[in-house]
Amino acid sequence: MVVGGKDLGPVEPEGKPRRVCVVTSVIGRPGEDDAAMPALARLFAGDGDDVTLVWVPGPDAPSSEVVATHRGELEAASIRLQVLDRSDQLLPWLATPESRSAAVLHYLERSGHDLVYAPLEGGLPYFTLLAAETAAFVAPPIVIVAHAPSEWADEADKAFIDSTQAIAVAHMEKYCAEMADSTICASAALRKWMLSRGWKVRKATVAPLLRDPLDQTGARTIARKSASELVVLAGWRVRDGLTLFCDALDILAPTAPEGLKVTAFGPFGRIMGEHSGGLLLRRAERWPFKLNLLPGADLNARLDHVARTGGLAVVPARAASTGGVVAACIAAGVPIVATNIGANAEAWIAEAGQPGLVDPDPAALARAISAALDSPPRPQPIVRQNRQAWLDTRAAPRKRARKGAAPSPLVSIVMAHRNRPLYLKQAIAAIEAQTYRDLELVLVDDGSDQDEARRLLDALEPDFRRRGWKILRRPHRHLGAARNAGVRAAKGELILFADDDNALFPEAVDHFVRAMAATGADICTAFQLIFYEDVVPEKRADGLIQYLPLGGPDALGLIHNVYGDANAMVRRSVFSRIGFLVEEPGYAVHDWEFFARASLAGLKIRPIPKPLYWYRSRPDSMFRTSNWYDNRRPVLETFGSGQFDGAGPLYQLAIAQNTTRSELESARENLRYTPAYRDYLELCDLEPDSDVALQKLAGIAGSIGRPETAAGLLGRPATMAVDAPGRPRDGGGSTTLAYEVLRSARLLTPRASALPLLLVAPDGGGVFLRPHADGVVAASLDLHFPPFFRRVEATVEIAHADAPAMDFALALARPDQTIDWQGDIAAQTFAFSGWTTVEEKFVRHSLATALRARRKMPLSIALAVRFAGRPNGSPTNAFFRQLVLFSD
């Protein structure tokens, strides 16, 4: 079949269902971009294909109930669901992007699919494509679907790369986009972005993401009345533009129509550290509008809400790679005001009669909203059909076939050895069992001084001479020098380093030679199976792959060895171009430094994502007994040689990991400066979409006079009361400390006593302190006086008829401050109430202290009692019944 001027190969014969595998990392909600891959599965199954949806959920594995629900829905559409949360070749969890990608490869090697679709995001097909490139797997055609690469998302959200894992994912995604049989971008804007970053994707095609056949993103019946509700279709990410929307409403507020309502939906998240729902509620203090916050709804439900209420949808995006929300609004025929950014322009259809797109500027957005409210548009629903275009993508290239007989160059296996005769016998036996015949072994003995090792070398000499192999006996000069000597003595065009304590699989050399020919690589490394015994295991099922080298990028190569293990194949020409291995005595990571030097010189390194040898791990190995500093110093020198030009991600990493939380989460930090926002600040530290966060958000809404907002969050009628969570709120910027806080009180003055000196009574009983004849008894509520609060007041009481007079005091201090209670307390603390003498029994008295200036740091509240005179031997019940904090 010819598509776009290219012959993409034959279509499967009629009558034989095409076996299609669709890979996904998420099963999103209808209408969302995350649902695009399951939507493809439904489309292909509906067209008669034999479809399997492979779900790779990552470290947060779904519950069995969630899996059962999805499985039932997919089986009803004739789709098999395969949840890929482990691989029998890996450790029993898929905690990294590398492990998830390897698990996909292991699945596909056994599945027999004719065609594979996979998302670009996360790099799931990375090792499958690498296996195809290195001829380790005759993979079916791989079609990559791209909508939001991690590097694009970071830029759009104004975030620097903050982890080495993120650098790895960006590398994997770029490779997948470039090496796939077909790459499909969700928009021309995204393809343009890739090209601007140097991605080799000129042949990539553009197709809007497919919506699920069950998706009801179609024409709606619109309530025909003047728009009295703004419905913001924006998530919590910076690129979604929620703050832009708030800025526009600040401008619109003075002139907005009376009775206007604003509706926003979860799921909630954090914007510069602030809870997105809290952000809307806080900003709404400036607006005369009602605010409706609904905790969660998919795009269909949001569009239904717009249609039902006759509202105006607002899409205030600051960046858009798919334009999917705009396209859905146009298909539904709901009036929309949207920003002219990224892929939104591609999704726009002028014939629909919608207002034009606007610049992502608060004033422009406010004007556009005002105009649409004054003269509500009456758009026509227009749907761009692209299902057939996606069906046509199945005419993918022919299945890969192994090339004919490749040249069989001489391979020189270079093996260094010293005093390990038992292991050496096993390593040589593995070489003798190789299926590749045109090879020689160059064994370099690095000064063995054990009799058994010397006798073995003597015994090996005759057979080596007969085979044309070599044994070099040299003084002990360490591993690097021994390997270099072996290279110089070798005759082969290809050099394969093999350690004497490892054991090659019989097909290893064959695979290495084939990979070198298929890729044109200068160096090929490979996966390995780990074992820990003195004898090589008989069954490969007894080993696990624990090291998954990516082969790059160099930015990660500075931090750890991403290239592969020393058991690698190297073209002889490499040594003439970059030199030999480091010969420094005791150096343990020759492979890392050598591979880094090669990569920085522009040589091509490719790992073969298939285990080709047994790797013996021992606690007394050179690597495990060496110093990490010594190992990295030569690597650092290599990267500092001036050849390294890929430090951009490392600069970002350094900035992201060494920027204070107050800068990274500036919106959250700003809440600290306004005492009245303390509850908003506490909301920021809760899981945004958790029940406790929604309850907290509803409580804040109720406490500031927005009962309808609170009711919407909790799904209750607006007439029902909503209690604020946590501490009771007294109004006027005051907060009463609850029992949960008081029970954290810590005794500061331990003294010998037959009875407890500190107790906390529930049900409003307060904190009990027992005075002592030896002096002051004090307790601390650590860090419970919030930043920027001004004052603390206590209600104190003597609760025993025979008790003597007592002195009570309050102080505010640093939690690490040790107070000498016999000295000048005021000089040791930020605020001190002075001592107040109480003689009356069962009469409550007020006690207070205040800061002279507000402080940014949280402080501790110290409570203290002492006898006013001499103790009379009677019981002494001294209570701090209530503690109230004031922000003014």
TrEMBL record:
The segment(s) forming the Glycosyltransferase 2-like domain are 412-578
The name this protein carries in UniProt is DUF6212 domain-containing protein
Origin organism is Mesorhizobium abyssinicae
Source taxonomy: Bacteria, Pseudomonadati, Pseudomonadota, Alphaproteobacteria, Hyphomicrobiales
Highest taxon of the source? Bacteria
InterPro entries named in the record: DUF6212 (IPR046184), Glyco_trans_2-like (IPR001173), Nucleotide-diphossugar_trans (IPR029044)
